[in-house]
Amino acid sequence: MLGVAALTGALVAGVAQAQEARIAAVNSDRILRESAAAKAAQSKLEAEFAKRDKDLQDMAARLKSLSDQLDKSAASLSSADRAAKQKQLSDLDSDFQRKQREFREDLNQRRNEELAAVLERANKVIKQIAEQQHYDLIVQEAVYVSPRIDITDQVLKALAASSASATN
Predict the structure, then answer these.
(1) Euclidean distance between CA atoms 167 and 40, whole angstroms
(2) Pick the CATH number of 21-167 from 3.30.70.920, 3.30.390.50, 3.40.630.30, 3.30.910.20
(3) What pLDDT is attached to residue 168?
(4) Which of 151, 86, 83 is nearest to 122 (CA)?
(5) Sequence ranges of the domains in the chain
(6) 144 — alpha (psi -120 to 50), left (phi > 0) or beta?
(7) Mean pLDDT lowest for which of 5-9, 53-57, 115-119?
């Protein structure tokens, strides 16, 4: 019986100690949507991929124009000319599809790289906050977070301040 009482006492003491723990939560999705670093990364990606995006739009317009021309003149073309135009259209469409797929893959890869860098910076800021304010646990993914322990706004402000001091 003495062993059970000692174990129960240890459990009660452990629970009491856990209730004193400082816990906070951060919404990573908000960091990736609202932080200045994430917005800067998005602008950087848009600038980096703008020319390729414009080229794809121009190619899509050429493809549509060729398709419209073929539709209008198909009846008056000889079968050889029609077949040649259809092959030209098919080749252009295949090239467009390939370039569009490569563009998406490259954009997704670069986006993932940029967002990983933002999260890495955010994690450093979160660790600094945890050390300065003596948090025992800070979680980033949770089903529910009480606004009382949500420190996302604080992390966003600290991240903005660290970004501003890094650029100065």
Answers:
(1) 12
(2) 3.30.910.20
(3) 53
(4) 151
(5) 21-167
(6) beta
(7) 5-9
